[in-house]
Specification:
The protein is mostly beta strands. The chain has one helix and eight strands; from the N terminus they run αββββββββ.
């Protein structure tokens, strides 16, 4: 994405602050339940698996696969005009949770369901760094 002026930026809450702090530090943090071992995203006060309040934060490996996606070809506001076309996707992380994010560093028409991706971070403001995903680098 190009400039962030005029774009809709998230507003961290006390419950999501650790997530946003992690992104700023280049770490994708997701909640982890100490009671049952379940990982979840987005941040909540209870485990979505067992209803425990014994939630902490764990570093995600940042890898996942595209579940589904759409290519945005018409900007939702003038602030996004320079970005079209861009991809919004649901990404299933290796730990299990699903995140909505952008797929970057890839031509929109090359994105596919099942495509392996990895997290990278884009500073959108002094306070907000967004986790976005690019095609996973092939190893070996």
């Amino acid at each position: 994405m190009s400039t962030t002026q005029g774009k809709f930026l998230p507003r961290p809450t006390p419950g999501s602050k650790p997530f946003w702090d992690g992104c700023r530090d280049g770490e994708l943090l997701i909640q982890h339940c100490a009671a049952c071992g379940h990982y979840q995203f987005y941040p909540r006060i209870l485990c979505t698996n067992c209803n425990s309040r014994d939630l902490g934060w764990a570093r995600s490996a940042g890898s996942g696969k595209v579940i589904t996606y759409t290519v945005v070809r018409h900007p939702v506001s003038p602030a996004y005009a320079d970005d079209v076309p861009y991809v919004i996707a649901l990404i299933r992380l290796g730990e299990g949770p699903v995140m909505m994010s952008n797929v970057v560093q890839c031509e929109p028409d090359k994105v596919q369901t099942g495509m392996p991706v990895e997290v990278v971070f884009e500073a959108w403001s002094d306070e907000i760094t967004m986790p976005v995903f690019r095609p996973a680098e092939k190893t070996g």
